[in-house]
Amino acid sequence: MAYDSIRLEKGMYQTSGRSFTQVLESIDPSEQYQGTALEGLDAFQRQLKRFDIHVKGGASDPVEKFFRSMDSAVLFPEFIARTVRAGAEDHDPLPSLLATTTVIDAMDYRSLYAKSDKESLAPARVAEEAEIPSVQVKIKEQLITMKKRGRMLVASYEAVRFQKLDLFSVMLRRIGQFVQRELVGDAVDTLINGDGNTGTAAPVNAVGTTPISGTSGTLAYDQLVEFWGLFDPFEMNTLLAASGAMVKLLKVDELQNPLTGLNFQGSGQLGSPLGAALVRSDAVPAGKLLGLDRRYALEMVKAGEIQVDYDRLIDRQLERAAVTTMAGFSKICGDAARVLTI
After folding, report:
1. Angle, vertex CA 86, rays to CA 160 and CA 307, nearest 5
2. Beta strand ranges found along 104-217 (DSSP E)
3. How far apart are CA 307 and CA 19, in angstroms?
4. What pairs with residue 291 in β-bridges?
């Protein structure tokens, strides 16, 4: 079926387990456009082209362009969802924290658990006809807490109908940014305090308390090296801190080399102390550093992508739009994340 003859309807948002774009792709596969002028566009973008809707740049169309027909109005919730997701993905630190992401179609979820220490996982030397030691993989006792977060966007059609989509997108991306900030906060809380199951809270060490040297309230390179050494057999490849602790970290003499300064001044990219990616997040408690091995520390569990209330958007021409997401986090290896109190 040609992309310009597809009948669009609200029911395309209600297909279980598939997004609006996935439903469109099943009707109008992108593969059939290889070698044509439409190559590189997905099914949703081809529908924007069909109705001549420009969503970016100075020549972007007003919001009312979506509502000039019932077919084009059906595209509006997907436009909002995509724009909010784009805002969520801008400067998104979650990929630096996650080992894996699990998408579920339910309210309840239990993750897997197995001992992760060297004694349990190291291959043992096995004598002839002797039993091979086992590692048990179990289901966690406690359900993962799924939190639903959202924001209601309230605006009458008359208030925004003549506003350019490019400007409208700025506000939507801002909503997405704050949705993602809350998810990062939930991830940090799980990394530090655990997911409710025994043994999932992060070990805590303090400057000035064995095995970390120094004086409480100060931070030097020695303490960073000692903290790094506690991760064996894991690797500290991500380090998070709130603004105050990050300032102390960046003032460590050994991290103030010319290349680090040029990178920070020229691009805003933070250095990598001991090879760890630095992430600034005010979700980390003041005066603490959160180190982790992102390959083994955390699982994100989510019930689909960011959702938008489509009925009200289409039938009542915007009025109120509910933007929601549902997600939770599970610790995989409890000691793959550690806290250093300065």
Report:
1. 75
2. 112-113, 138-139, 147-154, 204-206
3. 10
4. 239, 338
As a whole number of angstroms, the distance between CA 250 and CA 55 comes to 40
Query: Rounded CA gap, 264 and 261, in Å?
Result: 5
CB of 176 closer than 8 Å to CB of 152:
no
Residue ranges per structural domain of the chain: 3-92+145-183, 93-118+134-144+184-342
**DSSP line for 76-90:** HHHHHHHHHHHHHHT
**Left, alpha or beta for 143 (phi > 0: left; psi -120 to 50: alpha)?**
beta
| pTM listed for this prediction | 0.83
CA–CA separation, 191 and 273 (whole Å) = 20
Give the CA dihedral 73, 79, 81, 83, nearest 10 degrees.
Answer: -150
Measure the CA–CA gap between 341 and 236, rounded to whole angstroms.
16
Tokens of 254: 């050994």
| Ramachandran angles phi, psi of 319, nearest 5° | 35, -75
| Per-residue pLDDT reduced to its tens digit, 290-341 | 999 999 999 999 988 888 876 667 666 666 778 888 999 999 988 899 999 9
**Which tokens hold the place of 85?**
């997701």
- Name the burial class of residue 252, with classes exposed (0-12), middle (13-18) and buried (19+) by CB atoms within 10 angstroms of its CB: middle
Task: Give the integer Cα–Cα distance in Å for 43 and 307.
Answer: 19
325, 143 contact by CB (below 8 A): no
**Rg over CA atoms, the chain:** 25
